[in-house]
Write a structure and sequence with these properties.
- The protein is built from 3 helices and no strands.
- It is mainly alpha-helical and 90 residues long.
- It has a domain of 54 residues.
Length: 90
């Protein structure tokens, strides 16, 4: 009986609607928590919250399936200042 060695095949997963996630996070922010924050700080807060939600709902389940940490990048045409960089690989 032959045994087969399975090659590791790269898989690319594209998750769309990151713009919608950023917009939802923006709308859901507590206005009272934003008092006194600059626009740059508000954008950073949106980026952090969206990144955390993306990590929890999308990236972690994919990593669990893959059995390892995976590189990823978030891209937004509507919110270019809130892009997540491609430095998430461990």
């Amino acid at each position: 009986m032959e045994t087969y060695q399975w090659a590791r095949v790269p898989v690319v997963v594209v998750l769309t609607k990151y713009d919608m996630l950023l917009g939802r996070v923006d709308r859901m922010l507590d206005e009272s928590a934003l008092v006194g924050l600059s626009d740059d700080h508000v954008k950073e807060l949106i980026k952090e919250k969206a990144g955390a939600e993306l990590q929890e709902t999308c990236i972690k389940p994919l990593e669990k399936s893959a059995g390892s940490t995976i590189p990823w990048a978030a891209v937004s045409s509507m919110y270019p200042s809130l892009l997540q960089s491609f430095d998430h690989a461990s």
